[in-house]
């Protein structure tokens, strides 16, 4: 016999798929759902957790469970593409806001990720990515100025990778990445439209030129309801 929370989950999925609630609308409260399904709040909580795991709702602290668009933007994890390139490929209604361009304080811990020499200077570029009028990505990029001696607002407004490859003649080779889920920082809440979201998805990358020189460390902080991160894997038989 199927567990009760699974029956409730399946029923809620049918209602969501039939557009009983619109995207952005809140589900009834846990108490209301418990009364409706004649069960405990704990059972309702299990059903809601499953809805969240499968991308139907986003739990928002202090508000409840919001219906989200399951047609999230698919961002490839394994590739090395600029936001400008991805936005063009996905035909996103997007805008880049250059928040700051400066040299990094030598004592900043992000210097460690670039493995720079003591005399090297590091550019820090913070850009906000707006999609459909909502600020949903904060990109924090760090570049060794040994490879990028000049960065202007005009360059950062467009594609820095385009500038690196087509203006500087460098070849971007490969990257090492990690994906984690973190609590939003004060900076995230200030610069992004988080609307009560209790976490952000963070992709940290160390990017190398084709000669294996590390030239970039980047931290891309995403609002969780807008994206899914995809990869392609092929099994190699031993």
From TrEMBL:
<keyword id="KW-0804">Transcription</keyword>
<keyword id="KW-0238">DNA-binding</keyword>
<dbReference type="InterPro" id="IPR012770">
    <property type="entry name" value="TreR"/>
</dbReference>
<dbReference type="InterPro" id="IPR036390">
    <property type="entry name" value="WH_DNA-bd_sf"/>
</dbReference>
<feature type="domain" description="HTH gntR-type">
    <location>
        <begin position="2"/>
        <end position="70"/>
    </location>
</feature>
<dbReference type="Pfam" id="PF00392">
    <property type="entry name" value="GntR"/>
</dbReference>
<dbReference type="Pfam" id="PF07702">
    <property type="entry name" value="UTRA"/>
</dbReference>
<dbReference type="InterPro" id="IPR011663">
    <property type="entry name" value="UTRA"/>
</dbReference>
<dbReference type="InterPro" id="IPR028978">
    <property type="entry name" value="Chorismate_lyase_/UTRA_dom_sf"/>
</dbReference>
<keyword id="KW-0805">Transcription regulation</keyword>
<dbReference type="InterPro" id="IPR000524">
    <property type="entry name" value="Tscrpt_reg_HTH_GntR"/>
</dbReference>
<protein>
    <recommendedName>
        <fullName>Trehalose operon repressor</fullName>
    </recommendedName>
</protein>
<dbReference type="InterPro" id="IPR036388">
    <property type="entry name" value="WH-like_DNA-bd_sf"/>
</dbReference>
<dbReference type="InterPro" id="IPR050679">
    <property type="entry name" value="Bact_HTH_transcr_reg"/>
</dbReference>
